[in-house]
Amino acid sequence: MTALAVVAELPVLLVVGVIVALACACAACAAILDVDLQRLRLPRERRIAVLEREKDIAAGLGWPWQRWVMLRLGFVALGLLVAWFTGVTLLWIIGPIAGAVGFRFALAGRAAGRRLRMERAFLGQLRNLRDRMAVSNQSLDTALQELGRNPGPDLGYVLAPLARGGSTIANVVEMGIRARSPIVEQVAAVLIWARSRSSDFLIQTIDTVLIPVGEAELAIQEEGMVTLAQQRAVTFAMSSLLVVMLAIALGVATLRAYYQSFAGQVVLVVVAVLFACLVIFLGLIVRPQAWTRWNLRRLAEEQGRLGG
Amino acid sequence: MAELARALPFALAALLAVGVWAVGLHRLDVFTPDDVRAWRRLAALRGYATPAGRLERAAARVPFLRRLQDELDLNRQLAIAGWSESPQGFLLRVFFVALLAAAVFLGLLGLGLLENGVWPAPPGLALLVAVAAFVLQISMLRSRARTRQEQSGQALGDMMMLVAIMTDGRGLQLEDAVRILSRCVDHQSLQSVVDGKGWQRLVHRPHSTTIELYRQIATEFGIPLFDLVADAAANANVGMSERETYTRVARAVYQNRLAEARFRAARAKTLVTIPVAMMLIPLLILIGAPVFATISGGLGLG
Q1: pTM more than 0.95
Q2: Which residues of A touch B189 (CB under 8 A)?
Q3: How many angstroms separate the CA atoms of B108 and A59, rounded?
Q4: pLDDT for residue B179
Q5: Per-residue pLDDT of chain B (302 residues; tens, 9 = 90+)
Q6: Which chain B residue's Cα is nearest to A252?
Q7: I want to staple B227 with a disulfide (CB 3.0 to 4.6 A). Which of A191, A229, B177, B218 is the partner?
Q8: Which residue from A241, A301, A150 is spatially nearest to B279, judged by alpha carbons?
Q9: Alpha-carbon torsion B232, B235, B237, B241, what sign?
Q10: CB of B193 closer than 8 Å to CB of B185
Q11: Which one is predicted more confidently, B210 or A30?
């Protein structure tokens, strides 16, 4: 007699009673041991960090967030379609995962490269800002507006808020938020805090702090990008080779029959797990430098609280 | 089976009710006296440690548990990780979860025994599950502590440029500038140390200046950048320009990061060859497996 059959023969009230008693005992144990239920939840900052990283990639590519989500869903659907087309059961699991992760992996390098280009252009505009203030005697607000009107090809979207009127601090905050780049955020933070000081002070800050530090940050990112590009190229080449080999194998009737069998599915699982482990290992070796991100709205609030 | 299906909604409703009841009790602190609640609130506001419960006091008296928390450096790790639990409370929770994992595993094995009449796996494996759950929780704590250490150091380094402007241009004190800026970073690792008075959990020696406090934080929390900032503050105190001093710290931080990035890049170039070479293995398996299966089948091995 199976366990379920034994349970099924018991009266309903008894089953429910036992479950309630067990659950009460668990709750009592948790209360006595002061188990913190909040700890079981994923920390809010981590949940947000995951989402923010995705938004960073979308912004790096210059795409709206919705398009990024739709395309990723599209690739998941493509993975499912491949599974349906080939008839290999295991691909119903591997296909969508490969679609979602592979698409992100494929475009992350391009997004990082584009962002680096934008950051380099931004440092150029920062020099322009300095020159406008030092040589043309423009005020910060006017110089920022001028920059917003002539942003150059890579900075159109990022510098657009500066061109409009209204509160300069609000525009600077909006610029930092649009850029989603640590360098731009840091410059925005400095502009927020140094804006109420004299132009000379700001020019000196740009000369002695912002440009040298910004260049150092850029150099660090470039160093990381070189290694990251290598890693991506290798992973691309190997995964393409794997996909081509699998496609050829599935095109041959006898080989397809093998991969549709139980032993073939086990082999596919082993191959997928091994490859995923190696990609993760590669990622651990070449880990890019993380940067502090600023909450610019909060920064502007704090600045306002201390008296503009 | 039909009887069980009828019972299922009732069982689920009962479970839900008990869950809501437990969460409600937890949230509302129903059994906690008002004065205890008030004391806890005051203690949290002032940064005092709350008194240990009975179980925690009992755990503190057990020599094995005491030795274990010393060995694992739990008090320090918990403070750095920003978890409010005491080491005894944490150890009790870890043991509870480890035992629960073992019990759930044994329960599953028991179901298998009822179903087939034999143990699906040796019951001794439950012990291994408990040990794995224990190790996993401790390593999670250590990993969280390490991450927060790194994040705090990084945020402090990145804010030096702003600190230079705030202390020189706005006339703010270093401690205030760091505290204000720590609130504006997108994580709370540094804020919990400098703004939330988290440092009081590890810094017990008296201090009269920010420099002393920062040196103690650097030692106790393992964040060396606090030492660097304390040195810079000491220089600023003897008349050097605050902007120049803190800007120099910012530059030093970035130079250091650049050097590290170069070192890591150079090391990665060599290390990367290992996984790249190993990537041939899945490729060979993919090609070779059907051939091997055919040959072994032909030879009567499959």
Answers
A1: no
A2: none
A3: 47
A4: 92
A5: 565 566 566 667 767 777 777 676 666 666 666 777 777 777 766 666 556 655 566 666 777 766 676 667 788 888 888 887 777 778 878 888 888 888 888 888 888 887 778 888 888 888 899 999 999 999 999 899 999 999 999 999 989 988 988 887 667 889 999 999 999 998 888 988 888 778 888 888 888 889 999 999 999 898 999 999 999 999 888 888 888 888 889 888 888 887 887 788 778 778 878 888 888 888 888 888 888 888 877 655 54
A6: B290
A7: B218
A8: A241
A9: negative
A10: no
A11: B210
CA-based nearest residue to A105, from A54, A46, A180, A52: A54
List chain B domain ranges: 55-143, 152-268
Residue of B111, B162, B191 for testing the chain A interface, max A β-carbons within 10 Å: B162
Report yes or no on A20 lying in a domain.
Answer: no
Packed helices B74-81 and B210-221: angle between N→C axes, nearest 10 degrees: 120
Determine contact, residues B102/B39, Cβ cutoff 8 Å: no
Chain A residues within an 8 Å CB radius of B11? 15-16, 19
CB atoms within 10 A of CB B149: 18
The answer to whether residue A78 sits within a structural domain is: yes
Q: Are A107 and A280 in contact (CB under 8 A)?
A: no
Best CA proximity match to A130, nearest among A56, A203, A22: A203
Distances (CA, A) of B64 to B70, B71, B87, B102, B141: 10, 10, 13, 21, 20
Domain count, chain A: 1
User: How many other C-beta atoms lie within 10 A of the C-beta of residue A60?
Assistant: 22
CA dihedral A109, A110, A115, A117 (to 10 degrees): 110
| Residue B235 exposed, middle or buried by CB count within 10 Å (0-12, 13-18, 19+) | middle
Tokens read off for A206 = 């740009």
How many Å apart are CA B258 and CA B255, to the nearest integer? 5
* Helix or strand run (H / E) with residue A120: helix A91-134
Of B257, B261, B275, give the one whose Cα is nearest residue A224. Answer: B261
Is A177 a member of any domain? yes
Among A61, A131, A69, which Cα is nearest to A100's?
Answer: A69
pLDDT of residue B50: 59
The verdict on a CB contact (< 8 Å) between B287 and A8 is no
- In-domain check, residue A66: yes
User: Could you give the CA distance from residue A158 to residue B221 in angstroms, rounded to a whole number?
Assistant: 39
A28 pLDDT band (50/70/90 cuts)? low
Q: Give the closest residue to B276 by CA, choosing from A277, A235, A108.
A: A235
Candidates A15, A32, A45; nearest CB to B187: A45
- Average pLDDT, stretch A85-107? 81
d(CA A1, CA A58): 57
Give residue A307's region: left, alpha or beta (phi > 0; psi -120 to 50).
Answer: left
